[in-house]
Design a protein that fits this description.
With 128 residues, the chain is of the alpha+beta class. The chain has helices at 2-26, 61-73, 75-85, 101-127, and strands at 35-42, 48-55, 93-98. It has a three-stranded mixed sheet, covered by helices on one side. Strand 1 and strand 2 form a beta hairpin. Helix 1 crosses helix 3 (75-85). The longest helix is centred in the last third of the chain and has 27 residues, at 101-127.
């Protein structure tokens, strides 16, 4: 069982590496901007690959949805390019997902900063 997991993980890592290069070098759509491939999760049967992407400077959901549609429409092209770069019997279907971990992390940092500021205000009042 451990061997299967390691092969799936190696395939996912290779797909992530190749997709990052392909998106940067081959995708010419100006609507995309700067795209980061943060993770790839491949199904056990290698039929599907969930590609987690984030977009630099994009905050609102409408922009994210538009960029995901652009990525999904290019999935066939990217899959064919992957087939040339990776030697697999079948290349997984690409499904693009938005990775909001950066936005969530920034929000958590804000909450922590507010809580710490509130604690220091509270401590200053209790010492008086």
């Amino acid at each position: 069982m451990a061997k299967e997991y390691s092969r799936i993980q190696r395939v996912a890592d290779q797909i992530q590496k190749e997709l990052a290069q392909l998106i940067q070098l081959e995708m010419k759509d100006p609507r995309l901007g700067m795209v980061t491939v943060s993770a790839v999760e491949v199904s056990r049967d290698l039929a599907f690959a969930d590609v987690f992407v984030s977009f630099l400077g994009v905050d609102d959901q409408d922009n994210v949805d538009e960029k995901l549609e652009v990525m999904q429409s290019a999935a066939g092209f990217l899959r064919s390019q992957l087939a040339r770069a990776i030697k697999l019997r079948t290349i997984p279907q690409l499904r693009f997902r938005y990775d909001n971990s950066l936005r969530r992390g920034a929000h958590m940092n804000e909450l922590i900063a507010k809580a710490r500021a509130g604690d220091s205000d509270h401590q200053g009042k209790s010492e008086e």
